[in-house]
Amino acid sequence: MALDALLKKYFTVVILGLVALAAYFQAAGLTQLVGTALMSDEQGLAAATRTKPATRPSKGTESASAEPILARNPFDSVTGPLNAKPVPTEAVPQRVDLSDPLSAPACDGVRVLIVTESEDPLWSLAALQAPGEQAPKLRRVGDDVSGKQVAFIGFNPRERSPAVWMTNTGSICQALLFKEQPAAQAAPAPKPEQNAPPPPPNRGGGPGTVPADIASKIQKVSENEYHVDRAVVDKILENQAELMRSARIVPEQKDGKVVGIRLFGIRPDTLLGTLGFQNGDRLESINGFNMASPEKALEAYARLRTASNLAVKVNRRGQETSIDYRIK
Predict the structure, then answer these.
(1) Which of 44, 67, 114, 206 could form a disulfide with 127 if both were Cys (CB 3.0 to 4.6 A apart)?
(2) Of the candidates 326, 147, 159, which has an alpha carbon nearest to the alpha carbon of residue 241?
């Protein structure tokens, strides 16, 4: 009862004391919050002041350069930049002199084994063997041959031989199928004896005439059958350029497809004439290899040296004819 009477008597003082206490705690909390905020700002400012300021180069260390003046001279508006780099110019390709391709020099080291000439030059093919190659390869216009580019495949009437023209760095050369081999120097003829009869007159034919030593080893058994000495085959393969010089071989097309090889320029005293061919014959196959295919023709050519029999089919004036050769 005494406590209640005391509280009633000093109620106002108690209330004021409680209000004062609450105000104190509130002020203390605000002070703490403001202090924390100010402390974080002070720490950031201290960290910023510890950063090393950027140093400017002294006047003694600055390098003098005239690049701005060379790049744009304010006193000369005509010359332009003095430090401009030269613009590289592309080399102008040299033009190939095609004024006389029939007299072009021979392509060194390139051998021609087969030429298939088409009405469309882009579809003409040639079996060429370049220096360092173990076997010939079929090439057409645009192909590379040991650094040279095939430009044209056709017939050279001046040399009377199929030819392949190739270009390289402004020059042109040609490889002939029937290239004439250099003749060996003959020994000086002995002086004729006083009583010896005069030599018979030379009755040899023109280019391409078959020599007597080869013609004597080709025996005609029947109209379409021949016996041939193997030594003749070796001589033909070694000297085909001279022996085939008078003949012209042209692929023949029918309905847009090659059907065979037409033979022209054959006389009875030439090699092909001695072997039973006639002028205008169309060669179609040898031992089953189709001559209309350059790949098959090349394969048949590679087997000639070891073959013991040859079965040749030709079209003669529209009739199919077979010629058989026994090689021994």
Answers:
(1) 114
(2) 159
CB atoms under 10 Å from CB of 214, counted, come to 18
Instruction: Say if residues 269 and 209 touch (Cβ distance below 8 Å).
Output: yes
Residue with tokens 């013991």: 308
Average pLDDT over all residues of the chain: 76
Beta strand 289-290 with 148-156 is: unpaired
For β-strands 319-327 and 225-228, DSSP reports them as parallel
How far apart (Å, rounded) are the C-alpha atoms in residues 118 and 231?
Answer: 34
Q: CB under 8 Å to 112, separation ≥6 — which residues?
A: 126, 127, 128, 162, 163, 164, 175, 176, 177, 179
More confident residue, 98 or 231: 231
CB 266 within 8 A of CB 278: yes
* Structure tokens given for 55: 């140093």
Q: How far apart are CA 109 and CA 132, in angstroms?
A: 9
Alpha carbon 138 to its chain centroid, in Å, reads 13
Please count the other Cβ atoms lying within 10 Å of the Cβ belonging to residue 269. Answer: 15
Residues in the chain, overall count: 328
pLDDT-above-90 percentage for the chain? 15
- Render the burial of 4-38: b for 16+ CB within 10 Å, e for the rest: eeeeeeeeeeeeeeeeeeeeeeeeeeeeeeeeeee
pTM for this model (two decimals):
0.47
SS3 162: strand
